[in-house]
Design brief:
The structure holds two protein chains of two kinds. Chain A is of the alpha/beta class. Chain A contains 16 helices and 16 strands. The radius of gyration of chain A is 28 Å and the shape is globular. In chain B, a hairpin with a 7-residue loop joins β2 (130-131) and β3 (139-140). Classes of the chains: A alpha/beta, B mainly alpha.
Chain lengths: 508, 185
């Protein structure tokens, strides 16, 4: 067999790419007010480093990474911090999260930028630098890149480094445009990844409906040995596992990592930001966002993080008549926003306005077990079986069918003749299982703390009895023993500090 | 002669088996009652005592001994009863209404302005989740509070109240698809 090696299932979807990819990337503007969420990545929320009233410069770190899986957050422009509080963020819940609100001073003045020579750096220092530059996966999953750049413990050396430029979601064209216009810088970013990961080969996967991007990447890669590999246009070829299968014919084991099979996958836009950070000392403060759908002039914008969706839509000429829903991400995997007042984050690859005409939701009918979902599932699962168990809330059984291998691509929901919102069931079941797991951990903690308390009370009781026995003449011991049993009202002051001491010790 | 051989052989066999069993009883001794452990694992560990026993473990022991029923734990809710019924091979039954209703998860909050620092709540807390000292303000470590409400009664100035835990962006969950629920009904 020769590559590409097709993955199981998948779909030919409507494309709608030409709406937004005919124009070049619109350079960003600086809005008056930027709301920068401190959680723009998978993992622990960044710790705020500024407070209301502080002056900040463009590129200054305002959120410090907290823990290993975390990334820094930076000021997208210079100005004054007006608040560090909870603000609406692009999240399916519509709940607020911690954000730093910056009022621009209009000068857009950079902090001193310090590029580094990655070839002379210790790998661990380089990873730290990347983490502090806020580099995360810009394909939409926003996983901190520094973590993926550390192979220790998983495999000796990488077989294949894969650059993901497939961009299989309908409507979305931000990766297409960045490859067309910034291919040289993407390749410079790949050099850094290749230096750190030492792969045997570097493969760049791009869907074959992007001839301009393929040509630009081919030109930029000439002489580097990196191979640009067009892949058939079939959703979801841009899923990391699906692209890996397409390019290498390898599949990671269930519950395994891609590094188990010697593969690591990065988005092309991530490579670009990596290059900007290392070679120019510019942290991630902007990203390319596709603004498309029911919009006057759909286009890609190089938007500052923290700009509101409404700002971007206004720059594209505003909404067309009859917009019913605003989606972040593509139509297959994205989710609806509660308002357009939310800020652009590192995960905002696409803002899709959906008109009423496209929003026909036919009534949900019972499952007829036709098996169409099984045909299209790119993760080789049995979607109808998952559906039955999720519907019946049988969370043990659903895991026997590998619920957590589901990538929520939406292929099953797309083909379901009964219009069952299958992915919603899987999301629901995943959330419930995680919540139960957390609940169990909480209960375990409470059990341990209760046990420790009981032991402490017993010990204190024994100590009191021993003390009394020492003081009192042996003859009087027995009546006094009786008196000290139970809570001792005579010495609340001494009992309380003892419990406090234990409290303090444990809470640390 | 044959009879003696048979008696000796069987006697030796019995002796060897006895030794083997005796050794196994010591070598593979199980600490505690495994049923109690498994029941305890299903209980919510609020340590609230609403079941009438001191702490979840005592209730687990009582269930195992057949002294308590499986429907005495309001924090565990109907789901908890179902899990216990499943483990013990009994029929699930509704929660005992005399012991209080099933409530959403709560956390105790001390009004720090009114707290007089009497330490009574600290002594009542079954999981040491209240921090403070005599004549100093107390506060609840929310992460460790089980919502048992045992601190409410001892407070002489009634400065503790229970607050429902509202979902945050990290605890929020996708809901059960409603459209389908309607269609299925």
């Amino acid at each position: 067999m020769t590559p590409p090696f097709p993955f199981h299932g998948g779909l030919k979807t409507v494309r709608h790419k030409t709406e937004s990819n005919r124009e070049t990337i619109l350079p960003g503007s600086v809005p008056e007010r930027l709301v920068v969420p401190l959680r723009q990545h998978v993992g622990a929320i960044a710790k705020p480093l500024v407070q209301a009233g502080d002056r900040v410069l463009k590129g200054q770190m305002i959120g410090q990474p907290d823990g290993y899986v975390s990334a820094a957050v930076h000021a997208p422009t210079s100005g004054r911090v007006v608040a560090v509080d909870q603000q609406p963020v692009p999240h399916p819940s519509g709940l607020p999260d911690w954000c730093v609100t910056i009022e621009s001073d209009g000068q857009d003045r950079w902090i001193e930028r310090t590029p580094v020579d990655y070839q002379r750096m210790h790998p661990s220092d380089l990873r730290n630098f990347v983490r502090n530059a806020g580099v995360v996966g810009l394909g939409g999953a926003v996983f901190p890149s520094a973590v993926k750049m550390n192979l220790s413990g998983h495999c000796e050396r990488l077989e294949q480094l894969i650059l993901n430029g497939a961009e299989c979601e309908p409507w979305m064209t931000c990766d297409d445009l960045i490859m067309r216009e910034r291919a040289v810088e993407i390749v410079a970013g790949i050099h850094i990844l290749a230096h750190l990961l030492q792969p045997r080969e570097v493969l760049i996967g791009i869907e074959d409906d992007k001839p301009e991007a393929i040509a630009a990447m081919n030109a930029a890669c000439s002489g580097t040995g990196y191979q640009v590999r067009p892949v058939p246009t079939r959703y979801p070829s841009g899923g990391a596992k699906q692209l890996t299968k397409l390019l290498t014919n390898k599949e990671a084991p269930v519950n395994g990592r891609s590094t188990d099979i010697g593969v690591q996958c990065f988005n092309v836009a991530t490579a670009y930001t990596l290059h900007r950070a290392v070679a120019h000392g510019e942290p991630v403060i902007s990203r390319i966002v596709t603004v498309t759908g029911h919009i006057a002039q759909p286009r890609n914008i190089d938007a500052l993080l923290g700009s509101s969706f409404a700002d971007l839509i206004a720059r594209c000429g505003g909404y067309r008549e009859g917009v019913e829903r605003l989606i972040m991400g593509g139509p297959m995997m994205g989710f609806a926003m509660h308002s357009d007042g939310v800020p652009v984050t590192k995960a905002t690859n696409c803002i899709l306005a959906v008109g009423a005409d496209a929003l026909v939701e036919p009534p949900v009918m019972p499952c007829i077990r036709c098996g169409d979902c099984v045909e299209v599932c790119p993760a080789n699962l049995l979607p109808q079986q998952l559906y039955w168990h999720a519907r019946a809330k049988e969370f043990d059984k659903i895991q026997d069918y590998h619920l957590f291998s589901c990538i929520e691509c939406g292929c099953c929901s797309y083909v379901c003749p009964s219009h069952i919102p299958l992915v919603q069931y899987y999301r629901y079941a995943k959330n419930e299982i995680w919540a139960l797991e957390k609940e169990k951990q909480r209960a375990e903690l409470a059990r341990r703390r209760h046990q420790a308390r009981m032991e402490r009370l017993e010990r204190e009781q024994r100590e009191r009895e021993a003390k009394l026995r020492q003081k009192a003449p042996p003859r009087a011991a027995s009546p006094l023993d009786g008196a000290t049993a139970g809570p001792s009202p005579a010495e609340p002051a001494s009992a309380a500090p003892a419990s406090i001491a234990v409290n303090v010790e444990r809470s640390e | 002669m044959m009879m003696i051989v048979a008696i000796v052989a069987l006697g030796a066999l019995a002796g060897a088996s006895g030794l083997l069993l005796g050794f196994a009883a010591i070598r593979f001794k199980i600490e505690g009652d495994p049923v109690v452990e498994r029941i305890d694992a299903l209980l919510p560990q609020t340590q609230c005592g609403q079941c009438g026993y001191v702490g979840c473990r005592s209730y687990a022991e009582a269930i195992a001994a057949g002294e308590a029923d499986i429907n005495q734990c309001p924090p565990g809710g109907q789901g908890g009863v179902a899990a216990l019924a499943d483990l013990l091979g009994r029929d699930p039954k509704p929660l005992d209404p005399d012991l209080g209703p099933e409530k959403p998860k709560m956390v105790a909050v001390i009004d720090e302005q009114s707290c007089i620092g009497c330490t009574l709540c600290i002594q009542a807390c079954p999981v040491d989740a209240i921090l403070g000292a005599a004549k100093h303000m107390h506060t609840v470590i929310a992460r460790e509070c089980t919502g048992c409400e045992l601190c409410l009664a001892p407070c002489p100035v009634d400065c503790i109240h229970m607050q429902p835990i509202s979902p945050t962006i990290t605890t929020w969950k996708w809901v059960y698809p409603a459209a389908e629920a309607r269609a299925a009904a």
